[in-house]
Amino acid sequence: MNTFELLKPRTGLRVFISGAAAGIGAAIADAFLEVGASVYICDVDQSALDKAKERSPRLHVGMADVGNRTAVDRVIDDAEAKLGGLDVLINNAGIAGPTGEVEQIEPDDWDRTVSTNLNSQYYFLRKAVPLLKKSSDSPCIIAMSSVAGRLGYAFRTPYASTKWAIVGMMKSLAIELGPSNIRVNAILPGVVEGERMDRVIAARAQSTGVTFEAMKEEYLRKISLRRMVTVDDIAAMALFLCSPAGQNITGQAISVDGNVEYL
Hints:
The protein is α/β, with parallel strands linked by helices. The chain contains eight helices and seven strands. Helix 1 (23-34) packs across helix 8 (231-241), helix 3 packs parallel to helix 4 (107-132) and helix 4 runs parallel beside helix 5.
């Protein structure tokens, strides 16, 4: 096989991506469609799903609140029926959660962050792993964590806690599922340019009493390359991990962040 062909996932992979009507998830979905995969996405926002379907008619879509076990069961069952099985699960859904000092964080906000970011990954795994065990195409799980899953993140304790937990879950599953030839890795995006990051910067600026521009500059100073990454950078890593070139990569927490030095 040509060396460069190893970098391309096999045509026809059956891929499920949670939280993928916009942002990182949408970029990953588009990337897999471009290489000939069959892709099913879910999201809590029906209007965003409708727009995604208009943009990419080949997409299969389903609405789900990922913190709801029944909803997760429903979309995975629908994906199995539509795709005929599963080769790749990408646990991407997540929220930023509250920003503030720990004593100011409302318990309901904490619970919602844990439910959406962490519990949802388990809900998808419990349904998808039996399908992945039937795959003969080097099945792969990608858990979306964050640079906040390797660094402390003041004023963002709920978010960081879930992202560290995701790395631990991935490490454990890589050992557990290795004998079944299922590879499990985590991608840790850094500061990803876009509307969501702008909202995070604005919230942190407000909580610390500085301007948006000053807070954005502070974020960039923490990155060795002094620039944000893009959703396409994250999508490229997802493709690589699911390609023949990544067939021996498992149990890894891979940062795509320009080397964020601290948060």
